[in-house]
């Protein structure tokens, strides 16, 4: 990877690595155990200008792209996937504004996000609308110069902590998916509140809450794009953001492998270090190869996004599901390499394994990602026959 990075990207990588090692590593177990949001780490990332990596300079960012974001996410995830996703989820909430927002919306909201002054979050999922994103029930009704939102969003990362939310709601039920629209909702708007903080298997330091809308009034100008663009905005957002989840998965996998190698270099059985056993060597060789394959695919897709290529859904889905499957396999193998110690909280491997699991689920389950890839291949084959 190093030979493909620009000098600026190498600086980003080193800066994120330094924050991960010096700021996050000493407290990752504490945040995981207490399930508290890592505001001090978010402030450190803000001071390092990492929230502005992918935001254009005219809106207070550094003018980079998704590749730069992935570099930072991977380095942070090598130490803690939960803290890393608290950072990355702000980008997820920002992408609808970047991709489809008006100039006025960008000028109003992006500078505070780029500086880290305010976090963002994205609200699509509901109790009965997860993989079936077109099945959302939250509604937005235009009344004069305001839209009135009613409904509930579920399992929203950064929920309750973020100040800015991009929300998908139905404005015309009769049009189905084409009746969905996207809105910017601010935390203190009347009628907007939060459910309890969810207790999760992994990424425990991140905040996951319901978003509750009870006659929530938002200004008409907070509509992103135009009515009916919500579903398109959501899908384009995921095409852009999924390399970030892949980068998180790659980082978790690499961190787990690094920890496992440190252990097996010291552990002795049968009078020798267990790293000298060929069976062990084959395991770590396979783990390293799978991680590197996932990394290369992830950064290929990130660069594809940054190039402005339009038809990237297939590749975005590929990198997300492949990298997250690798992360799950590698973390399970890493726990196995430590044996009983790997199962104990005293060592970080069990946390890596718990954190890896969610990467196969959020931003579209891996089964849905395979559907996306297969359907794209079928369409391509049909076009070739015409």
Describe the structure.
- The two termini are 40 Å apart.
- This protein is α+β, with helices and mostly antiparallel strands.
- The chain has three domains: 118 residues, Acyl-CoA dehydrogenase/oxidase, N-terminal domain (Butyryl-Coa Dehydrogenase, subunit A, domain 1); 110 residues, Butyryl-CoA Dehydrogenase, subunit A, domain 2; 149 residues, Butyryl-CoA Dehydrogenase, subunit A, domain 3.
- The model has no long low-confidence stretch (mean pLDDT 96).
- The strands form three sheets. Strands 1-4-5-8 form a four-stranded mixed beta sheet. It has a four-stranded antiparallel beta sheet with strand order 2-3-7-6, with helices on one face.
- The protein is 52% helix and 15% strand.
Which keywords apply here?
386 residues, alpha+beta, Butyryl-Coa Dehydrogenase, subunit A, domain 1, Butyryl-CoA Dehydrogenase, subunit A, domain 2, Butyryl-CoA Dehydrogenase, subunit A, domain 3, 3 domains, 4-stranded mixed β-sheet, 11 helices, 10 strands
